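Chain A, query sequence.
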Amino acid sequence: MSATIRPAGPGDIDAVCTLLHDKMNAKIAPDRWRRLMTYEWLAEKPDLGRVVEAGGRILGYVGMVYADRNIDGRSERIVNICAWYLDKSLRGTGLGMEMMAVATADPAMSYDIMTSSKNTLKILDAVGYRVLDDHRYVWRNAGPPDAALAIIDDPAAIRARASAGEVRLLDDMAGLPATPVLIEAGGARALLFFSVKQKGAGVTWFDLLHTGDRALFTAQAQTLANALLPDGPAVLAADARFVPSPPVGPAREPLPVPRFCKTERLAPHQIDHLYTELQLLDLKLD
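Chain A, predicted structure.
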């Protein structure tokens, strides 16, 4: 059976959602899969990913969630690669690798994958991906809060103190599972976003998705954990790229599967977890 790889368009949405629900993960309803192609922060999308069409049917898909980010005063287009699926009837033909190569061929853009499968690691290496992070730091509540660190979690109060760039982040993440927190200490401030989820045996994880100041976050992470974490089993976690120097105190843990990126333009710490399938599909960060 001959197959064609092409950009996905609005007319493919229903077929892609059915494919992903029926074949990739039935726990995610088709309307939830639809969010990967109907997100609102970029009105003019280049495409909706890549599809594999064979015999008049959509049998493969790789999601491409585009975002234009302000990185050190310049606009950079970062693409979250997600929902990579190929029907079993077409596997072993090289189509899986070709899909990924075609989806990530433009060097003017940067690409990230936050939820890889161990089964795809060889393909990612072959098409030019490198490890973005392979470990994280984990803090637990170790004492009472410190008044020297101001923590603002009221959205209206955060917005009142936010810069124009931060307001855009707040607007784009509004209604999505990305919890904003503003911290202030010693004349410095940083806007943070967390994914707050229960994992494993009822442990509440505050996973850092974004920090506006890595040094401030690292210096205040333990104090922040003391103030922010609820009673009971809970941790604050940050991928190592958000921590500019290894801190004393938190546990260093390997990630179950590394995060990956393909870029000629950005350093690892410039790629965060916002504007990804994590928010659109309401996924946990493993």
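Residues 136-256 form one domain. The radius of gyration is 20 Å.
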